[in-house]
Backbone:
């Protein structure tokens, strides 16, 4: 199958954004619908139709679960850069603790 572009011509005219497939009886088309997904062999990625266009390689979701463990979730708050001072060890420890907390909340490291 092929993804038809936004302004097709020739045998594909009038089939904007559809999926096209060649058969013994000629071209066959499946109209694109929001949420439709197909695998793009050329890009080795998922292609998804949404809002009137195809997007390739973008995956949307609220969290990623691997082997029953959530490993990525909502973005955490920014972690402030440590700044110079008279107690650099304490500042470094505070930054490291914040980094570890963010990694743990994403499930990237165990608690």
Residues:
């Amino acid at each position: 199958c092929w993804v038809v572009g936004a302004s097709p011509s020739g045998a594909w005219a009038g089939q904007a954004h559809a999926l096209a497939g060649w058969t013994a009886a000629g071209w066959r088309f499946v109209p694109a619908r929001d949420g439709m997904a197909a695998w793009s062999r050329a890009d080795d990625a998922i292609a998804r139709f949404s809002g009137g266009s195809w997007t390739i390689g973008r995956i949307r979701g609220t969290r990623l679960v691997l082997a029953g463990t959530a490993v990525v979730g909502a973005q955490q708050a920014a972690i402030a850069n440590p700044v110079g001072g008279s107690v650099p060890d304490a500042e470094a420890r505070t930054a490291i603790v914040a980094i570890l907390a963010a990694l743990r909340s994403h499930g990237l490291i165990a608690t």
